[in-house]
Write a structure and sequence with these properties.
This protein is mostly beta strands. It has helices spanning 57-61, 90-97, 176-179, and strands at residues 2-5, 20-21, 42-47, 53-56, 66-73, 78-89, 105-110, 115-119, 129-134, 137-138, 148-150, 163-169. It has one domain (2-24, 40-190): Oxidoreductase, molybdopterin-binding domain (Sulfite Oxidase, Chain A, domain 2, Alpha-Beta Complex). The radius of gyration is 15 Å and the shape is globular. The ligand Nc1nc2c(c(=O)[nH]1)N[C@H]1C(S)=C(S)[C@@H](COP(=O)(O)O)O[C@H]1N2 binds next to loops. This is Oxidoreductase molybdopterin binding protein.
Length: 195
């Protein structure tokens, strides 16, 4: 299995500005945790793509798996070291879908109604993945079962749990927190928390 270490782990200044280390991620949910049945689960990638993709959980697991080690930074100030995720690189799925020239941003849609957005560039990063395991276990229900997008280069609110579909769009479209004043990109090294 290919292993990826998020580049931020190798930085001398490993903790982004204004953050503090904690032991475990604190669970944040805007709504109650959805019940998701694996057999009927489908991940969909749509919008500004040449090939729309609808893929089952079994088929997703047939793609080349990746183990990712990354730090996890919440905008409220806590960070967790060395979270280990297993899944498939988002760029592998992007390759299948072929983003159109006009695709510039991503809007992630989740089962319970949560959404988040970021520039397309982050979908193509080496360390961005769709994860189904967290610390060598299927992702616990409260942490995003069955599938979560993990974008280590951005604050944790962009790592959406219970992900159901990814929409490639031309114009940057705010998600749940972005509509409430959080940053449209959210790079922790630049402290892009709000605005
Ligand atoms: N679907 C969904 N994903 C989400 C959230 C949410 O409310 N719903 N909260 C975000 C926020 S604000 C943070 S800090 C992280 C927390 O991850 P955890 O709940 O696994 O600790 O999940 C992010 N992903
Ligand atoms: Mo958060």
């Amino acid at each position: 299995m290919k292993k990826i270490i998020s580049s931020d782990i190798n930085r001398l200044d490993r903790l982004p500005p204004g953050q503090r280390w904690v032991e475990k991620p604190i669970i944040y949910d805007i709504k109650s945790v959805p019940e998701i049945d694996l057999t009927s689960f489908r991940l969909k990638i749509f919008g500004m793509v040449e090939n729309e993709l609808i893929i089952s959980f079994d088929d997703l697991k047939k793609l080349e798996p990746i183990e990712l080690t990354a730090d996890f930074h919440c905008v409220t100030g806590w960070s967790v070291k060395n979270v280990i995720w297993k899944g498939v690189q988002t760029k592998e799925l992007a390759k299948i879908c072929k983003p159109k020239e006009s695709a510039k941003y991503v809007l992630v849609h989740c089962r319970e109604g949560y959404a988040t957005n970021f520039p397309l560039k982050y979908l193509l990063e080496e360390d961005s993945i769709f994860a189904w395991e967290m610390n060598s276990m299927p992702i616990p229900k409260s942490h995003g079962y069955p599938l979560r997008i993990v974008i280590p280069k951005l604050y944790a609110w962009k790592s959406a749990k219970y992900v159901e579909s990814i929409e490639l769009v031309e114009h940057d479209t705010p998600g749940f927190w972005e509509e409430r004043g959080y940053h449209m990109r959210g790079d922790p090294w630049l402290e892009e928390r709000y605005g």
